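Changelog note: in this version the structure field was regenerated for every chain. One regenerated record is shown below for reference.
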Amino acid sequence: MRLILVSFFVFISSVSISCECVTLSPISKELSNNYDVVFCGIVDSVGLCGEEGTAIAYFTITELYKGNVQKQVKINFDCNTECMMSFATDDNWIIYAKYSKFDFLNISICDHNRKKFNAGEEDIYLIVSKRTFEKELDFLKTNLTVLETVESTVVNNTVTDIGRHNEQPSSWGKIVLLLISVLAMAIVYFVTRKKK
């Protein structure tokens, strides 16, 4: 029985970690034409994963390089497959987004999107991009220029605010929740095993 459980967890772990993306070339002016909106921004909050397997990350744009969007923007991303993305409040990202419908921006883990890592953390995007986060920002400023964001919509003399919404736990919070659930499953297994 133990062998079956261990095999099951190993299989699930290997399946959940295997996201296959086409190898990307470093971003260039030509490749940036594949995206509708390009910006650098801070994550305000992250919505819960919906039934369709997508969630929304709410960003405040610090610099806009391409597109016509407001300073606060929402981005749809995969949150339920092996290619899911993970965002945490106050993360700094360079986002390369595409419209799937009017005013419906999507991103993918297989695109050029990248997170700025804190000092001491390994920049996993450096391998593909061939540039540090700062050098990529310089490249975008030089080749795409910095644009102004669109003014927020005013409704009845109030500004519509995306603001903070339901937030997902941070990366460490997700790991803690995963460990707690594995521990709970082990306890249930041993309790039911003793009763038989």
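Spot check on this record: The longest helix spans residues 171-195. The chain has two domains: 22-165, 167-196.
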